[in-house]
Write a structure and sequence with these properties.
Elements (H helix, E strand, L loop, with lengths): L10 H14 L4 H10 L4 H13 L23 E4 L7 H32 L10 H16 L11 H11 L2 E7 L6 H9 L2 H10 E7 L3 H10 L6 E8 L2 E9 L4 H95 L11 E7 L5 E7 L4 H10 L7 E5 L28 E8 L4
Parallel strand pairs: 1-5, 2-3, 6-9
Antiparallel strand pairs: 2-4, 4-5, 6-7, 8-9
């Protein structure tokens, strides 16, 4: 069955898609579209989520996996510093060492055999991480109960969160794996880790994450870092865009030696952080520049759209005015034609002009508004409407007019009214056999 076709994008969605691709540098349009659809086409949220992914922060649509964040531990240039246990001194020391050696060997051998056999009976509970934050917090409380509150500031979060924060802030991350059963753990915590100079150094120079290997979260990190002995410290930093282990410190190390070794590791890898800072600043500047360019483009686009809108409005206004003029001209033409047709109809309906020697004839000279004179004969018995229709049928007559006598001056009632539906005849109007009447133009009125 064919896959359903994706709905077509609107113009606004297409612009956001192109802008998102330009801001993120993604080549796949499908990936850009999926990301924007996941964020309901909110371009700011989509770009921020994409940048978070590039910086190592999990996307809200791609939650972090249950396994630890991958750290590059295969770098052969990792600085490793191992402190061996001091050799016995003197006859008494060697005697005690040789006497305890068989017992110690037997104890650790039996313990390893017991643990190995126990795996076949019951899986190691540390293999399932259900509450990594709880594991870290539980270790911190246990550490404070045993060694007090004077210690470096522990990162209260998961190992993955610590890696992400160190990567985002471009800081060193020091990881301490606490082996509770190891013989040197207690002395390291009391004599080295909780000393004032070490606490001050760690708190001011790096993030510090620690957990016991007896906890699932600590055990998982132990499997990733593959320590050989305890106490174990690993220095991790962003190198070649990957969080990389750049230093390993194993064994019972003294405070001054610990500070010197950490300082050496930091100095040896400082160039990587500086390079990454410069790259980030360059990316930020590029992003700011792109944002400014986008803002300028959008401002220019809005200005162009506003110009286009005003131009369309002006063109529409001109078109409407032209249409109004055209409609007015058409209406005037229709009115003119109607008037001409009415004039022709009135002219055709006029009675025949009587002969000059007809005793009932009346000779009337009409003086037109344009100072021309028109002469015609009518009968005394004809209605005043006839003389009105005659004047109306003339081409030079105005559209609206009235006929008045000169002396005495009076308006002849040529048209029917409510009071006088039948206009009088020429005789009833008091006209003589020869009259001069004036046609008064009422069109402007």
């Amino acid at each position: 069955m064919a896959a359903p076709e994706e709905p077509e994008l609107s113009q606004a969605q297409t612009e956001k898609l192109l802008q998102f691709q330009d801001l993120t540098g993604l080549e796949s349009m499908d990936q850009c579209r999926r990301t924007l659809e996941q964020h309901n086409w909110n371009i700011e949220a989509a770009v921020q989520d994409r940048l978070n992914e590039q910086e190592g922060v999990p996307s809200v649509f791609n939650p972090p996996p249950s396994r630890p964040l991958q750290v590059n531990t295969a770098d052969h240039r990792v600085y490793s510093y191992i402190v061996s246990r001091p050799q016995p001194r003197g006859l008494l020391g060697w005697s005690y060492y040789l006497i305890m050696l068989p017992f110690r060997f037997t104890y650790y051998t039996l313990l390893d055999i017991f643990r190995f056999a126990l795996r076949f009976i019951r899986p190691d509970p540390r293999g399932r991480v259900t509450d990594p934050v709880g594991d870290v917090v539980s270790f911190i409380h246990s550490f404070e109960e045993q060694y007090g509150r004077s210690h470096p500031v522990f990162y209260q979060g998961t190992y993955s969160q610590a890696l992400n924060d160190a990567k985002r802030e471009l800081r060193y991350l020091l990881v301490y794996l606490h082996g509770e059963d190891h013989q040197d753990t207690d002395e390291f915590c009391r004599s080295t880790l909780c000393t004032e100079e070490v606490v001050t150094f760690l708190n001011t120079r790096m993030l510090f994450w620690a957990c016991s290997t007896s906890k699932p979260e600590g055990y998982r990190v132990s499997q990733a870092l593959r320590e050989n002995t305890y106490p174990f410290l690993a220095m991790i930093v962003l190198k070649d865009r990957k969080m990389t282990v750049v230093g390993r410190l194993e064994g019972l190390i003294q405070p001054e030696d610990l500070i010197n070794q950490l300082t050496f590791i930091m100095d040896a890898n400082q160039t990587h952080l500086m390079s990454e800072r410069l790259e980030r600043e360059e990316r930020n500047q590029t992003q700011v520049l792109r944002q400014q360019q986008d803002e300028a483009y959008l401002a220019s686009l809005r200005a162009d759209q506003e110009k286009d809108r005003k131009k369309r409005e002006e063109e529409e206004q001109i078109r409407q005015e032209e249409e109004k003029v055209r409609q007015t001209a058409l209406a005037e033409e229709r009115r003119r034609r109607t008037l001409e047709e009415e004039k022709e109809r009135k002219s055709e309906c006029l009675p025949q002009e009587p002969a000059s020697d007809d005793p009932e004839s009346v000779k009337i000279v009409f003086k037109m508004p344009n100072d021309t004179r028109v002469e015609r004969r009518f009968l005394f018995g004809q209605s005043l409407t006839v003389i009105y229709d005659f004047i109306f049928s003339l081409k030079e007559s105005p559209e609206k007019f009235q006929i008045v006598t000169n002396f005495p001056r009076r308006v002849l009632p040529c048209l029917p009214t409510e009071e006088q539906p039948n206009p009088p005849t020429l005789k009833e109007a008091g006209l003589s056999r020869s009259e001069v009447l004036f046609v008064q133009d009422l069109t402007d009125d």
